């Protein structure tokens, strides 16, 4: 088991009392980069175990946390992957994973601001999967062994940009800078009682908007890894936003406003707290 953090750009392992710098702990400076740590995910279990009895290098300070996967080569995102959300969007269930990208420059840390691009910006809490061992044509039965860990994400979406034109285009409306908060930690798969049944929730301005379990995913994690790897070679550090349940703002016409807090949580993983701010 491990919990990988990005503390001021350096890989760190989180414990109950704080964090341990991975390069210091291991004596291997090449593990300082969180992307290198993800590529060597099999080693992290052992390094996490070796934190036992050692004083932490620091306490977890929200303002120091950067994206736990800072520079993925690919960011996949899946639309309409919960029946409840497809229904509220008045969309048919997709016959295969409806896939778009969030360009990696949209990623921010778990407590960073969301810079609103307009008046129709929406929240979407999502489980995010990080690939640890790449591959092509990964079998569904092998898929979990390719996953370095799971984290939480917000697929922040400018609905006007997303839905302008027919057919709509998703990628740019969901790729404004700051529209991809992830974190707080990348948590190893064996940390979860059942990695296919993780409770997610999202509060906006203190009001519960979304609550669901990933057990309701139409295309669960293993199927997404198998499907995507049948088309693209997956590389260590690639991430997949797995889709959002019902309760987004678009369904009721209520969107994010400057000053509002978006709080997102997932069992075992932790919480994102992102304040909305006006652009400029
Ligand atoms: Zn989404």
Compose a concise summary of this entry:
The chain is of the alpha+beta class and 280 residues long. It has helices at 22-26, 34-39, 41-49, 83-88, 159-163, 221-229, and strands spanning 3-7, 10-14, 19-21, 75-79, 98-101, 107-108, 114-116, 121-122, 125-131, 147-154, 157-158, 180-187, 199-204, 207-213, 239-241, 261-266, 270-278.
Structure explained in plain terms:
With 280 residues, this protein is α+β, with helices and mostly antiparallel strands. The chain has two domains: 62 residues, no CATH class; 204 residues, Alpha-Beta Complex (Fumarylacetoacetate hydrolase, domain 2), CATH 3.90.850.10. Helix content is 14%, strand content 30%. It is built from six helices and 17 strands. The chain is globular, with a radius of gyration of 18 Å. The protein binds zinc ion. Zinc ion binds next to loops.
Heterogens: zinc ion
Gap from first CA to last CA: 42 Å
The CATH superfamily of the largest domain is identified as Fumarylacetoacetase-like, C-terminal domain
Beta-strand portion reads: 25-35%
Approximate shape = globular
Radius of gyration (Å): 18 Å
CATH class of the largest domain: Alpha Beta
Fraction in helix: 10-25%
Question: Uncertain segments of ≥5 residues (pLDDT<50)?
Answer: none
The total strand number stands at: 17
CATH fold node name of the largest domain: Fumarylacetoacetate hydrolase, domain 2
The overall pLDDT average reads 97
Structural class: alpha+beta
Domain tally: 2
The helix tally amounts to 6
